[in-house]
Design goal:
9 helices, six-stranded mixed β-sheet, Rossmann fold, ATP binding, 2 domains, about 25% strand
């Protein structure tokens, strides 16, 4: 079922209500609202300076809004730092990926969340439970249908760009119990690898985890998004669907040539 047709009767997983963020005299966000529902991909598009990055930072704890509120499962939340959002189940994959090239796939998936050995070895000697991390990493990759990464002991530096992106997305999916945010996930990839990442986004959505996708690639947006939030000059210009509007119309709304 298309998420866009059922949003009226469901409680959003994540909501932003009239968010305001200013930087001196510069207005980053001017009363922006947004709803994200379970099992959907919500794309956020807009020209440079439209407020996309500021909006995402406010949703994920990297920035604190000056006004408005955030709701998670209908309850108010206050993120003071990115770790607060991560603790609440919101994971973000930035364009830079933030992976460690020298570490293997499993170690990267548990980067900053390493599992310790049970008992004295883990508590006193702080020994890592490498077997458990590798087993869990394989299970997560299998769950998401990532068939290009069979060996979780391979160093990240030996992987292609698409495979690195898959690791970062799998890491977010493993710990993002509520929301996964993807910032330009196909920007640096070729056609084949970009398509693989799009399939991964669809599979992630199909597990029920809602995805926020920030992208400049309109064909990719229209292929995977259930709804499209359009930012313009710090405000929400409108929310459309791939069924209700064409790519040309979306661009026209984004640039101000057309209004909703």
């Amino acid at each position: 079922m298309n998420a866009a047709t059922t949003t009226e009767t469901r409680t959003p997983v994540l909501s932003a209500k009239r968010l305001v963020k200013t930087y001196g005299h510069v207005v980053g966000l001017d009363g922006v609202s947004l709803d994200l529902y379970a099992g959907e991909v919500l794309a956020i598009i807009g020209d440079n300076g439209a407020g996309k990055t500021t909006l995402i930072k406010c949703l994920t704890g990297a920035e604190i809004p000056d006004g408005g509120e955030l709701l998670l499962d209908g309850k108010p939340v206050h993120f003071r730092r990115p770790q607060d959002a991560r603790d609440a189940g919101i994971e973000t994959v930035y364009q830079s990926l933030a992976v460690s090239p020298a570490l293997d796939v499993a170690s990267n998936m548990y980067l900053g969340r390493e599992l310790r050995r049970p008992g004295f070895l883990g508590s006193a000697l702080r020994m890592l439970d490498t077997k458990a991390m590798r087993r869990n990493a394989r299970e997560e990759l299998t769950r998401l249908g990532i068939s290009t990464l069979q060996d979780v002991t391979v160093p990240i530096e030996n992987l292609s760009g698409g495979q690195r992106q898959a690791v970062a997305v799998a890491r977010a999916a493993a710990f993002g119990s509520k929301v996964v945010v993807l910032d330009e996930p196909t920007a640096a990839l070729g056609v084949r690898e970009g398509n693989q990442v799009l399939e991964l986004i669809k599979r992630l959505r199909d597990t029920g985890v809602p995805v926020i996708l920030i992208s400049h690639n309109m064909p990719h947006v229209f292929e995977v998004a259930d709804r499209i939030h359009i930012q313009r000059l710090g405000k929400r210009a409108g929310t459309i669907t791939p069924q209700s509007h064409t790519m040309g119309e979306a661009v026209a709304i984004m640039t101000g040539a057309q209004t909703l």
